[in-house]
Amino acid sequence: MSDFLQRMKDAAKRDVKTIVLPEGEDPRTIEAAKKIVAEGLAKLVILGNPDEIDVEGVEVIDPRTSDKHEAYAAKFAELRAKKGVTIEQAREQMNDNTYFGTMMVKMGDADGLVSGACHSTANTLRPALQILKTAPGTKLVSAFFVMCTKTPEFGANGTLIFADSGLNINPTAEEMSEIALSSADSFRNLVGAEPKIAMLSYSTKGSAGGDSAAKSKEAAELTKQKAPELAVDGELQLDAAIVDTVAASKAPGSDVAGHANVLMFPDLAAGNIGYKLVQRFGGADAYGPLLQGIARPVNDLSRGCSADDIVGVVAITCAQAQQMSA
What we know:
Blueprint: H1 3-14, E1 17-21, H2 27-39, E2 42-47, E3 59-61, H3 69-79, H4 87-93, H5 97-106, E4 112-114, H6 121-131, E5 142-148, E6 159-163, H7 173-191, E7 196-200, H8 211-226, E8 231-236, H9 238-242, H10 244-250, E9 262-264, H11 268-280, E10 285-292, E11 298-299, H12 307-325
Parallel strand pairs: 1-2, 1-4, 2-3, 4-11, 6-9, 7-8, 7-9
Antiparallel strand pairs: 5-6, 5-10
Helix pairs in contact: 1-12, 2-12, 3-4, 5-6, 7-8
């Protein structure tokens, strides 16, 4: 187990939160729930058929028969009234596990939600945006991975954030800067170290031209303007961002190069491929995609996740819920 995950579990145990898992039909959810209960990480609510789900110490709710169904439907209809949602449509929507679970978070009956083992990111994100909305002061919801590598010389003792690796397909320089600001907060809050942000590219400090390299450079400049106290640089190639000796020759004088711990990718293709390469070839533990910028903790899962991955994301979600309620 990585030091990062152990810290998340220890934090979760200190102030136990209620987390809802909407995917009660997935065997990985059930396996994870048993481990979470055994470790005392969270109070769990699993959504599904109580006759088919038997996990000691877990509350199982069928949204269709829940005594909260009507109240949730009424609130959802109120929230979506400007979009023309009727009470009848709201009642039908509350039959969907993810919508019901997200409404639990909205109404204070749960502190966070973790989903995505057998549903797409859109299925997790859509209810969150419709019901919970974005966090105050946040312009853009984005996704990141906490990567716990076996190389302690990189990042914060081997731990880095990769963003955006799960949501925004081709962010503009302005959007990259907003994702960087959110990622810096996430790194500080979850990892407990100061972020050093590298805007990645195939180019370092103008070594190659092209629109993508220019975008990463502009994103770094915009981030510096918005948060002068942050350590951010770009455009940087990956080796210049994390390897001291390469940084010395390619980006001398940079306060980030060679020491980056928050890696900002120019588009979703690079971010998604990058985290999977590090995970599969490098044996890193990848936690996410974690969502940032939503008013309450909602986190996605890769559909290739294991039960242990779910345990880890639940622990992280608990830590986020603690920070939001502080």
